[in-house]
Design brief:
- It is a single chain.
- The chain is 77% helix and 1% strand.
- It is an all-alpha fold.
- The protein has a single domain, classed as ABC transporter involved in vitamin B12 uptake, BtuC (Orthogonal Bundle), CATH 1.10.3470.10.
- A two-stranded antiparallel ribbon has the order 1-2.
- α1 runs parallel beside α13, α3 (37-72) packs antiparallel against α11 (228-250) and α4 runs parallel beside α6 (141-164).
- The longest helix has 36 residues, at 37-72.
- The radius of gyration is 20 Å and the shape is globular.
Length: 328
């Protein structure tokens, strides 16, 4: 059912906009049946890459959110809280500040420079958080969250300082990117994110039963013969890689990793073998719908997808906090 809703959303996003198209126009263009240049341009250069990026980013953030919530045993955890978004954002702003306009050409190197900078920034921030969270040979979940919040705040300050020093054009680009946007989606960006998802998501799926066991106490895990710290490290690194890759092409989109796991658990229960695929579908749906809303409701202006999701996510976060307080 979720896949059907996602496909319908993708279709609506594909056919509606400043340049409306019919279903037959889209099918003929995709199947190369008497394709017209205008339809080719709109579908293959603008709308389809944007939709694919939204789906891939939503999938990645949703799955990473489920992993992080299980590892930290905190239903309010989100990949953005770990500082990965801030690390990637700071790296992108540093790139814009020092190197924008210095990399010439339209080849792979110039196109991929900015996503690669974002990826390296996210991984570096995650590495610092991981090192500071390691104590007495163990990765402490609460220490992980607190360290992530602290580093995210510091990197956010660096980002703000550099952004204010930029020229107007770069400032606008940095502001939109940090808000979370798939406006500049490109097929090369899609190629850059796919290997991370193809490699890391199957690893998480294979270890989904471990995520179920993490809900037990540490003593129980030891009694079952689970190498707790090793499994946490592997799963956390997988989620970090996925989030860094997503943020490197879409900017700081938050709340997807918070909402998707909760929605998935309400739909199909608490078994991660089923939660992870549903999180992927829910995350993809959240980003795709939010992007469609952002590009149509204020047309011809556009609202970044990250802002639309934040408008939805903040009330949802408050609701979860209220429910958790009521159960305590």
């Amino acid at each position: 059912m979720g896949i059907v809703i996602l496909l319908v959303t993708m279709y609506v996003s594909m056919t509606n906009g400043t340049f409306d198209m019919k279903f037959t126009d889209v099918i003929h263009t995709l199947l190369r049946i008497n394709p017209l240049p205008d339809y080719d341009l709109v579908i293959f250069e603008f709308r389809l890459p944007r939709i694919v990026i939204a789906v891939l980013v939503g999938m990645g953030l949703g799955i990473a959110g489920a992993v992080i919530q299980s590892i930290t045993k905190n239903g309010l955890a989100d990949p953005g809280i770990l500082g990965i978004n801030s690390g990637a954002g700071a790296a992108m702003v540093i790139f814009m500040f020092f190197f924008q306009g210095k990399i010439k050409g339209t080849g792979w190197g110039s196109i991929m420079a900015m996503p690669l900078f974002g990826l390296m920034g996210g991984l570096l921030a995650a590495l610092l958080i991981y090192l500071f969270s390691w104590k007495d040979g163990k990765l402490e979940p609460q220490r992980l969250l607190l360290t992530g919040i602290a580093i995210a705040s510091g990197l956010g300050a660096v980002t703000l300082f550099l952004t204010l020093k930029m020229n107007p054009n770069d400032f606008e680009m940095a502001a939109v990117w940090n808000s979370g946007s798939v406006y500049n989606a490109d097929w090369r960006y899609i190629v850059s994110i796919i290997p991370w998802l193809v490699i890391l998501i199957p690893i998480i799926m294979r270890k989904s039963y471990i995520l179920d066991l993490f809900q037990l106490s540490e003593d129980s895990l030891v009694g079952l013969g689970v190498a707790s710290e090793k499994e946490k490290a592997v799963l956390l690194l997988c989620s970090i890689g996925i989030v860094s890759a997503c943020v490197s092409v879409s900017g700081g989109i938050g709340f997807v990793g918070l909402m998707a796991p909760h929605i998935a658990k309400r739909l199909i229960g608490h078994a991660h073998r089923r939660i992870i695929p549903v999180c992927a579908i829910v995350g993809a749906l959240l980003v795709t719908v939010s992007d469609f809303i952002g590009k149509t409701i204020f047309a011809p202006a556009e609202l970044p997808v990250g802002i639309v999701i934040a408008i939805i996510g903040v009330p949802y976060f408050i609701l979860l906090l209220y429910r958790k307080k009521g159960r305590s």
